[in-house]
Amino acid sequence: MIQLIHVSKRYDQRSALSDVTLEIGKGEFVLLMGPSGAGKSTLLRLLIGAERPDEGQVFVHQKNVTTLKQSDIPYLRRKVGTVFQDFRLLPKKSVFDNVALPLLVQGVSADDISRKVTEALRAVGIEHKRDQLPAGLSTGEQQRVCIARAIVNSPVLLLADEPTGNLDPALTVEIIELFKTINARGTTVVVATHDPLVMAQANRRVLTLSQGRLLPEQGVSS
Ligand SMILES: Nc1ncnc2c1ncn2[C@@H]1O[C@H](COP(=O)(O)OP(=O)(O)OP(=O)(O)O)[C@@H](O)[C@H]1O
Ligand SMILES: [Mg+2]
Fold first, then answer.
1. What residues contact residue 180 under an 8 Å CB cut-off, 6+ apart?
2. Residue 222, in any domain of the structure
3. 50, 131, 167, 212 — which has fewest CB within 10 A?
């Protein structure tokens, strides 16, 4: 599903990723760990073509993202759901409309939108809040709306950047369990985090970045 071959990325003269080679198979659930500044977000942005590597190749879902035309990037993004910290909900739109957005921009029919959004809201357990505005929801509920929006298009890959950053331990556990359920339905999941609780709760393969380098992998504990 994901392959990085000798990938390096620099900002100005500073190295954000150095010679990273890794492979993530279809159906895997992988945690991307490492301290602040290690390069986690940079790696995720490379996967959706939001950044280009200075060296190396990036493959996602059999597409070489490195050489993908700018005009082909929206097609890649339809296959990839993202839960990024800076990607907020629209405050004046209902929960339903927020989740419907990725489908609206693709011209999906109203019937299909209704069905898919209902399914996604049900999957994250907030169907009963569909007509509310984001401001009327708790932080954990808002995060679940973001996840619903990310999975509404049945992505082959779900990328989440610090999805539990603002959540207390109980909600963190809930969100990780939700990712496990989504993963069990066949979506490959990659979660970037520096939260040890996420690692303990997920109990899945861990890739660790340190100053832009990938550390040797430990054995999987489950
Ligand atoms: N747009 C940018 N311009 C300049 N430098 C950047 C940019 N984005 C990231 N960097 C630098 O690249 C390095 C890796 O940043 P990145 O955001 O990938 O780390 P991270 O592991 O996601 O950290 P955090 O846990 O704080 O989110 C850091 O040194 C950061 O300052
Ligand atoms: Mg980050």
1. 29, 202
2. no
3. 131
Which ligand has the shortest distance to the CA of 13? 1
Any idea of the CA torsion for 85, 87, 89, 91, to the nearest 10 degrees? 100
**Domain count along the chain:** 1
CATH of the domain at 193: 3.40.50.300
**Can you give the residue range of the structural domain that contains 108?**
2-10+22-214
The token pair at 190 is: 């990659």
* 220, part of any domain: no
Pocket of ligand 1 (CB under 6 A): 11, 14, 16, 34, 36-42, 194
Q: What is the pLDDT of residues 158-195, one digit of tens each?
A: 999 999 887 889 888 988 999 999 999 999 999 999 99
Cα of 39 to ligand 1 centre, how many Å?
A: 6
DSSP label of 70: G
Of all ligands present, the nearest one to the C-alpha of 39 is 1
Query: Per the confidence metrics, is the pTM higher than 0.90?
Result: yes
